[in-house]
Sequence to fold (104 residues):
Amino acid sequence: MEEQEQNQNYKEIQENLVEKAEQLKQKAGEVEQQVSQNINELMSTTAEKLDKAAEKMHNTAEFFRNNNVSKIKEDVSCVVRKNPGKSLAGAIILGFLIGKIILR
Fold:
């Protein structure tokens, strides 16, 4: 009789383990699906940002292609005359950043 009870206990444990394994498998599938969705959203957002950056770079390149140095110098001088404080602050920040890059 004791052997039969042991077999029954083992059978119950085995059934519980199979049930838990199925639950874990289902949960893993849900987590995998969520991770995939998050990665797809992140990649989409990154692609959009890269597209915007590429467009800005293209526009900047077009500006330099279409303008000569004297035209660019004239435009910069005009901006500096209109906004001397902001221009000075921008120059200081730009100098700081260039200094940081060079000193690395």
About this structure: The mean pLDDT is 89.
